[in-house]
Design brief:
By secondary structure, the chain is mostly helical. It is about 60% helix and about 0% strand. It is built from six helices and no strands.
Length: about 120
């Protein structure tokens, strides 16, 4: 299963600090500031940037996400390309929060898609 790679969206290494994450987000989002109208692709890119920053700057979510990324990398090595499928953001969110429950991490009510659907 291929997981949405928030590190790649922000062009970061997996050991990026919170400052690195914020700097990368700010640099990428700047290109949208002076655009009078955004097309659907640009709106989607902004939404992905916001999701990436949200997950990677939230310590609880980042720890869970990092664990999923590591597990996914292990699984990818065992699967051939024809068997891989892309996980959409809702499935990814469900996987993050079900893992949080399993690890007994206190959960807040995060609805990533709803929070970022307004670009």
């Amino acid at each position: 299963m291929e997981v949405i790679d928030y590190y790649k969206i922000l062009d970061l290494n997996y050991d990026a600090t919170e400052k690195d994450i914020n700097d990368a987000y700010n640099n990428k989002i700047k290109k949208f500031f002076n655009l009078p109208l955004l097309n659907d692709m640009q709106k989607c890119e902004i939404k992905d940037l916001k999701k990436a920053k949200f997950v990677l700057t939230n310590e609880e979510l980042k720890n869970i996400y990092d664990a999923i990324i590591i597990q996914n990398m292990k699984e990818d090595k065992r699967l051939d390309d024809t068997k891989k499928e892309k996980v959409d953001s809702q499935i990814m969110g469900n996987r993050i929060f079900s893992m949080a429950q399993f690890l007994n991490i206190p959960q807040m009510n995060y609805d990533i898609d709803r929070n970022f659907s307004k670009s």
